[in-house]
Amino acid sequence: MTTELDPSDDNTPRDYDRLIIAVDFGTTFASVAYAKVNKGMRGSQLGLEDVQCINRYAGYRPPLGAPPLREDVPTELWYDPNPESRSPPPLAATQMEVNDERPVDNRWKSLYPDSDEESGLEVEQETSDQDDNEEAFETSRPRCWGFGVQNHLKKIDIPKDNARRITRFKLLLDESEATKEVRDGLVPTLKALQRRKLIQKEEDLFAHYLTHLLENTRNQLQKIGELDGNVHVEFVLCVPAKWPTKGCRVLQAAMRIAAKEAGFGNDGVCNLFMVSEPESAAACVLAENRDEIYFGEVIVILDAGGGTIDAVTYEITNEEPLRMHAEIAQPDSELQGGSYINQRFAMLLTEKLGDEQYLVKNGKTIKSIVEAQTMVFENGEKRTIDTVDKHASLEPIYIDDVKENSQKGLYTNRVAVSQDELNMIFCDSLRGAKEVLKRQLQTAESKGKAVNKVILTGGFGHSPALRHYLRNFVRSKKNVDGREIVLLTPNSPSTAVARGAVLRALKKNDGPSRITQCSYGFLRTEPYEPHFYEAHKRTKPRIDPVDGERYVHGTIDWLIKAGDELPPRHRVPITVKHTFNLARKHLICKEVLWVSDQKLESHYRHSHPNNRGAERAGHIVADMTFLKDRGLIQPEAPSHYSTFRLNPQRRHWVVNFELVMIVDGRNLRYEARWPPTEDLEFGEEQTVHAVGQECIAAAFQPGTA
């Protein structure tokens, strides 16, 4: 098994098998889809029927009536500070924890006031038979993830100290105001994990989770023989529309670590392909409904996930392969995904049981009872109930030893949830989805664009309540042409993004232009030249103790700048100089690669405000001692620019070599080559003495080949 590095056209048949693996890393659930392109086949020959999903995850225990296999897995980790302990892992603090046991009444006040529009949505009830169309791990990766975390929460008698459950951590990469409350809520848990040395930085969370996800993927693929023989693996990563470039880079780096740790080869994901979640979902829906999406149509993609409900509006510019124009309406979101239904369910149950202190015994607490029941609700009736149906009801919740108190809906061993309480649990998430969709429709209308269809995807998109609610809403609307708006739903909304991403990766042609959104450069020690470089004018140079010349240390020479259009193969060489004391035994040269999300001017120190936000991306170390040992260089006397020029006996070693930045598709390789091109003699070839590489998929717009 090797990792695919060839960025050439997907329509060119290969002399080896290819395995496309797409990862949809969602806020509350993740999924993995894959397809095999056999030797001699073109990627464009495959269709949606050839795309499969990983559907076996440890710890999944289907509730009564649920499918025996799941194609998505919770995006959750459980950090146990005592992994060798034989006792059950302690109950974690969760992101849906409430500070006081009994919420006050105003907690149930909806964030979305009733509107005249909503009261007019009295559409007939739908029948049930209606189709709904490189660095090593230095941290402690938790053994418990996904469904395993939820199973721990069902153990209502486990203590709640010491361990840490962490959820919704994808939102750490979204710096918008909408996610600030969630991000702030994660901070205490992150600090606790760092104090216990379970993580070094928040980015470790992504590498830890993705490693579990890819290990499970590899194990499943091996069992069915998909990794047998000389198969080349290509990874695809789905990212939200208009996500921060830094967020894409963090996930890109985590994927590289995870792929290596999971055994997918040392090359990791150097030529990773990134694609936007909305575009992937649309590709899946188009493949399922070939007569449903047409050239020139305007569509809203509503991604109802567990954390956020995201929407974006596109115009279709090509049907096959599917391509969409720049957004008609900018991406928008509401922080009211499916996990907030769980949160409100937990708050309601906490309120009902808050005074029932007789339940606190044998290791049980009110909190642990509530969390166990919330997991049962999450994987059970939450996924099947339609709260828009006036006759919908929730089965009484079985809890041992509950005593009767009819005023609070408590009966012997049962807790009842009234229809009003059930509507309260779902209300804000349903209205949040409607509000973000309404804003997209209004924006499109203000631009004279007629929205033809709305595509509903995401894990929360499974919900019969959400589908029914949104279908009623769009039926009450007409577009600017006076026509109806159609709601489309994939057969499996929770995996539509991953499956569509595979299809998109099989047909990379005709994507966005290769305009980089990042700058890449090398750390330099430059001769002090204020007459040539504006950046040097207000900089105090240092005298090099080796050659006595004046230099500006720690500058960055940006060889690729944000906004540059890069061909698939691009090469930028520079000559670098290193000086060494004559007594130095080893001539070791280190070159550091830097990256920034901004277009920056060269020759400023890395600490200068001009380079604010720039980060180290990698480095190489070249051992050039052979030049001295083989007599290929000779000691040099101080130059006439040197402060040591009056002492010609003060000699030193000078190493000049070529540092080459090479763009190869979505991979950036950088090499130390000797001799420099200008010093090559006839018939002589350069030799490479150090190589580094970084994936630069995050530097381009998602979907760029």
UniProtKB/TrEMBL annotation:
An example molecular function term from Gene Ontology annotations: ATP binding
Compositional bias of kind Acidic residues: 114-137
Disordered as annotated region, ranges: 62-139
Ranges of compositional bias, category Basic and acidic residues: 99-108
Record keywords: ATP-binding, Nucleotide-binding
The keyword Lipid metabolism appears for this protein: no
Domain of life: Eukaryota
First and last residue of the signal peptide: none
Pfam families, sorted: HSP70 (PF00012)
Keyword Cytoplasm: no
CDD domains hit by this protein: ASKHA_NBD_HSP70
TM segment ranges: none
Matching InterPro entries: ATPase_NBD, Hsp_70_fam
PANTHER family: CELL SHAPE-DETERMINING PROTEIN MREB (PTHR42749), HSP70 FAMILY PROTEIN (AFU_ORTHOLOGUE AFUA_3G13740) (PTHR42749:SF8)
Name of the featured protein: Actin-like ATPase domain-containing protein
